[in-house]
Amino acid sequence: MRIAHLSDLHLLPDGVLRMTSLLGRRLFGAVNLVLLRHRVHSTEVVRAAVDAVAGQDVDHTVITGDLTNLALDEEFDLAREVVDQLGGFTELTVVPGNHDYYAPDAVRARRFERWFGHTLWDRGQPQDEWPAIKDLGTVVLVAVRSATSPPPMCAYGRVGREQGEAAARAVTSARAEGKAAVVLMHHNLHRRGVAAEATGRLLDRELVSDLLGRSGASLVLHGHDHREHEMVITGPGPGPGTPVVGCGSSSVVQSSGLWTGRFNIYDFEDGKVGIERWRYQGREKRFTAQRA
Ligand SMILES: [Fe+2]
Ligand SMILES: [Fe+2]
Fold first, then answer.
1. pLDDT tens digits for 27-51?
2. 157 CA from centroid of ligand 2 (Å)
3. Ligand positioned closest to the Cα atom of 101
4. CA 79 to centroid of ligand 1, rounded, Å
5. Which of 22, 129, 146, 237 has the highest CB neighbour count under 10 A?
6. How many structural domains are present in the chain?
């Protein structure tokens, strides 16, 4: 089983910033976006990531949130168009990021669920049951919602005890059946810089880390931190612990240093997980696999 992991696409259609719907909370974000983000994230880089995944014999693709910036229908429409290119050669699971719940009206209108709920729940199932569980055969995906709609200029997340315990139970039962259990969530479990910790951390990080570590999850995948990160959380037993992997943003245009668009591919074989790391090469305008 090969699973590709993309994150933090932050797709921005042309002209969206001129739209009259940029009011209130969105105005803050839009200004922030113009100043900082628009130069960093590119739709073309995401299209290059999709092309690279298409050539890699991947069974399933997961995207760990922040497909949009302001949670507007126009942004979700572009995101659907870009990731639908994966259809036909890989299945898809998408969890929401804080930007996909950017404003209370987007949450009330269930915009994320309307555009991407089909990747989480079958028709006829309740379309808001978290965690969403997907059994892929040898691997079970446990899709957790960590994104909330926080106050302006904040990006906090929270999983909550009820959802966290349900995710841990799903992991335990998948492991009991001899399957790998992969937890998907948007927010990172590691500590970041002072500003990110102050405004954008997972508020119940300790609880979630403890529950997932104890349950023996095979892998936790996240986004939110636009730079790649890997660590291990340990449970009470002597086992090797649970790898926690953030692939970094998949839409960053190569600018300076090593920061550039990234995605990962995980290979599940004989109870082990191998990681291939892919990076966008700005000069060649394509992703290439990194040598270990
Ligand atoms: Fe993000
Ligand atoms: Fe985020």
1. 666 666 655 666 789 999 999 999 9
2. 9
3. 2
4. 14
5. 146
6. 1
What separation in Å is there between the alpha carbon of 54 and the centre of ligand 2?
26
Q: What is the pLDDT of residue 19?
A: 63
Q: Which of 61, 64, 42, 85 is nearest to 251 (CA)?
A: 42
Residues around ligand 2, an ion, CB closer than 5 A: 66, 97-98, 224
CA 33 / ligand 1 centre spacing (Å): 11
Query: Helix 161-176 crosses helix 205-215 at what angle (to 10 degrees)?
Result: 10
Q: Are 97 and 145 in contact (CB under 8 A)?
A: no
Range of the domain at 230: 2-289
Average pLDDT score over residue span 76-96: 92
From the CA of 177, how far away is ligand 2's center (Å)? 33
Token digits of residue 60: 């399933």
| Ion ligand 1: residues, Cβ under 5 Å | 8, 66
Which residues have a Cβ under 8 Å from the Cβ of 209 and sit 6 or more positions away?
189, 233
pLDDT in tens, 126-139: 888 999 999 999 99
pLDDT tens-digit series, residues 55-81: 999 999 999 999 998 899 999 999 999
pTM to 2 decimal places: 0.95
For ligand 1, the distance from its centroid to the CA atom of residue 11, given in whole angstroms, is 10
Q: pLDDT for 173-186, tens place per residue? A: 999 999 999 999 99
Expressed in angstroms and rounded, the spacing between residue 78 Cα and the centre of ligand 2 is: 18
- The predicted structure's pLDDT at residue 36: 67
Burial of 261 (0-12, 13-18, 19+ CB in 10 A): buried
